[in-house]
Amino acid sequence: MKTRYKGSCLCGKVHFEIEGVFESFYLCHCRYCRKDTGSAHASNLFSSSARLHWLSGEEGVSTFALPSTQHARSFCSHCGSALPSVQVEGKLLVVPAGSLDDEVPLRPDAHLFNASRADWDSGLEKVPLFDRLPE
User: Fold this and answer.
1) What 3 state SS string does 6-29 have?
2) Full-model pTM
């Protein structure tokens, strides 16, 4: 199994490397993750043993922790892209799957907080597929 992944933000100012194994991959539909992403869910990889190494731009990484919750997110302060963060008192690495430049050879383990799922987030397999913007 792959144990080294590179990633970056949208603007390219922040680059990082993850060294280690991901123990889980969850699609979270909680209201906080929906707000964070502006989408149906967050797609996060989790590890209690992998290590995060900032290759460039660490000074441009901001972190927001929602008061009175365990919810936190890190992001590029220039472009807003989601970035990895160390959470739960430094014991858990949370990596937004879309922030990785390398392919992840894992499939999501589960959908979390399904009761909070957006009303429009069902039956999506019936929606037309396009390889680019429709004309």
Assistant:
1) EEECCCCCCEEEEECCCCEEEEEC
2) 0.91
Q: Tell me the CB-side half-sphere exposure of residue 76, using CA atoms within 13 A.
A: 20
User: Residue 56 half-sphere exposure, CB side, CA atoms within 13 Å?
Assistant: 9
What does DSSP assign to residue 35? H
Confidence band (pLDDT; 50, 70, 90) for 112? very high
Q: Which two tokens mark 91?
A: 């014991």
Give the model's confidence band at 50: pLDDT under 50 very low, under 70 low, under 90 confident, else very high. very high
List domains and CATH numbers for the chain. 4-118 (2.170.150.70)
d(CA 48, CA 6): 18
